[in-house]
Amino acid sequence: MALTTDQVARIAHLARLQLPSDENLRVTESLNNILGLIDQLQAANTQGIEPMAHPLDATQPLRVDRVTELNQRDAYQSIAPAVQDGCYLVPRVVE
Amino acid sequence: MTLHTLTLADLALGLERRDFSSVELTQHFLDRIARYDSAANGGLNSFITVTPERALAQAVAADAARSNGTAGLLSGIPLAQKDIFCTQGVKTTCGSKMLDSFISPYNAEVISRCDAAGLVMLGKTNMDEFAMGSSNETSYYGSVKNPWDVTRVPGGSSGGSAAAVAARLAPAASGTDTGGSIRQPAALCNLTGLKPSYGRISRWGMIAFASSLDQAGPMTQTAEDAALLLQVMAGHDAKDSTSIDHPVPDYRASLNDSLQGLRVGLPKQFFGDGLNADTAALIHAAIKEIEKLGATVVEVDLPNSGLSVPAYYVIAPAECSSNLSRFDGVRFGHRCENPKDLEDLYKRSRAEGFGAEVRRRIMIGTYALSAGYYDAYYLQAQRVRRLIKQDFDIAFQHCDVILGPTAPETAFALGAKQEDPIAMYLQDIYTIATNLAGLPGMSIPAGFVSGLPVGLQLIGPYWSESKLLNVAHRYQQVTDWHRQLPTAFA
């Protein structure tokens, strides 16, 4: 299942990674090498085998629905690239 | 002064006897870091950040606790922390440009537990970017030199931790292991490295790469030290929903147990063509030594182990593509200059902040999870993951511990595999299966090929850390490979 450069451009967009067009061919080649390795999985007989998401098949623990976190907005925003009036600043989204 | 050749157990004794203070000890290691580690002066580059002020303050507090009788066993002993553990008020980079400006507002649970035990943090060690690599060469902060041969890699991703302890710039260090990142660098640098069972140590504040595989652990000079450090790190933490509430035994209590009757399993898949012949000879010699201690050897079969690398390179990138979506240039981390709109901000911040290997894995993961490919890649990999776990379940019906090589070869030259991701991935061919199965694995020194260390790998059933430490400790009582130091740093 080799990828084309168009598919790689699409994947980069989905991953929100800028991919300059002059790098696309090199990246495509590199991803296809890895997919070549991964494609060995297709030969495995997994008929009737349940996918395994956790080694102990554990499920998420539940807790009482109660506020446990302190408000640390100032501490967290002190390391943000751009903030104003307690909000994170990003380029205008709605004109 | 030979303080740096002492183990954690020796140092604990020395502090207890007042042979030296924690401040003296801490200054000794800070001096060694200053002397040997500066990349600008051709040093090892094993630390990204050294924290002398924090360390000396902790040392003063440890000495005070010692005087007033409130010191714990390890109070005042220095150690290095992998730069993947968030450390409040300290730069925490995960080896990435993305986090070059990140001063963590909170402590990882591992940091909190080490602080509470009175351990003194010397600094944060270098690592492959976001722990993705097997040579430490993907770090934004430059590669790390192997103290055994400074033209070679220390392994990865915990390469800085491994090099720092191997050169005795720290008596011990923390590491993390997603596919071999504690065990392979431990093997390449002649250390004892333990990846515990998944869920044994809290992942809270440990920057996530592949959440279902990541596990922290100790990197030390001896199995006894690994037991001491694991004791501090292990235990349930409600803040990590994947932390398991399972009793923590006294890991030192069983170190000297007899190995009489121990059943050792050797998987034929671990001794195939890919294994360097000289490495294989040392592994067989180490197994003979363990047989002399009373163990019997049986052959076991791990028929699907050849699929562990392919399965891993679906599952780990899939989880990484999800985990690393948090790095968006908005709330913390790198942000590009003059974004023209929000999408541009995301795309350029991420392309500039992440290195080539991280971008590659994010894209593989994004593809494997995308509509139309999810079943063929992600679900198939998870099914293979179960087959791999079932192989271990069956093998452990016939043996108590599995032995084999940690890595297929000794440390390779800096740059040798940098342009060939597949060759790099195959470094972890013997270690990845244990992460997929969630099992504990360990690497211990087993000899040298042309002056370069070789690691023996031990794998056990879930929660068998005590047994692995026991086997390793007994082996270390009758061998002295783990006592060897690189001469330039003696």
Task: Please give a handful of descriptors for the protein shown.
heterodimer, A: 95 residues, mainly alpha, two-stranded antiparallel sheet, 3 helices, flat, B: 490 residues, alpha/beta, Amidase signature (AS) enzymes, 8-stranded mixed β-sheet, 3-stranded mixed β-sheet, 15 helices, globular
Question: Would you mind describing this structure in some detail?
Answer:
The complex is a heterodimer of chains A (95) and B (490). Helices cover 35% and strands 4% of the residues of chain A. With 95 residues, chain A is mainly alpha-helical. In chain A, strands 1-2 form a two-stranded antiparallel sheet. Chain A is flat and about 55 Å long. Chain B is of the alpha/beta class. At the A-B interface, helix 1 and helix 2 of A face helix 9, helix 10, helix 11, helix 12 and helix 13 of B.
Summarize the helices and strands and which ones pair or pack.
The complex is a heterodimer of chains A (95) and B (490).
Chain A: H1 5-14, H2 21-38, H3 73-77, E1 83-84, E2 87-88
Chain B: H1 8-16, H2 22-36, E1 47-50, H3 52-67, E2 78-82, H4 109-116, E3 120-125, H5 159-166, E4 173-177, H6 183-188, E5 192-195, E6 215-220, H7 223-233, E7 263-267, H8 277-292, E8 296-300, H9 308-323, H10 342-353, H11 356-369, H12 374-395, E9 401-405, H13 421-425, H14 432-437, E10 441-449, E11 452-459, H15 465-478
Parallel strand pairs in B: 2-3, 7-8, 7-9
Antiparallel strand pairs in B: 1-3, 4-6, 5-6, 5-10, 9-11, 10-11
Largest interface: A-B, 51 and 72 residues
Rounded to the nearest angstrom, the radius of gyration of chain B is 21 Å
Q: Which sequence of SSEs, written as H and E, runs from N to C of chain B? A: HHEHEHEHEHEEHEHEHHHHEHHEEH
The span between the termini of chain B is 11 Å
Q: Which percent range fits the helix content of chain B?
A: 25-40%
Uncertain stretches of 5 or more adjacent residues of chain A: none
Mean pLDDT of chain B: 97
* Major sheet details of chain A: 2 strands, antiparallel
Tell me, what is the CATH class of the domain at 3-260 in chain B?
Alpha Beta
CATH architecture of the domain at 3-260 in chain B: Alpha-Beta Complex
Q: Main β-sheet of chain B, in a few words?
A: 8 strands, mixed
Strand order in the largest sheet of chain B: 4-6-5-10-11-9-7-8
Per DSSP, what share of the residues of chain A sits in E-state strands of 2 or more residues? under 5%
Report the strand count of chain B.
11
CATH superfamily assignment of the domain at 3-260 in chain B? Amidase signature (AS) domain
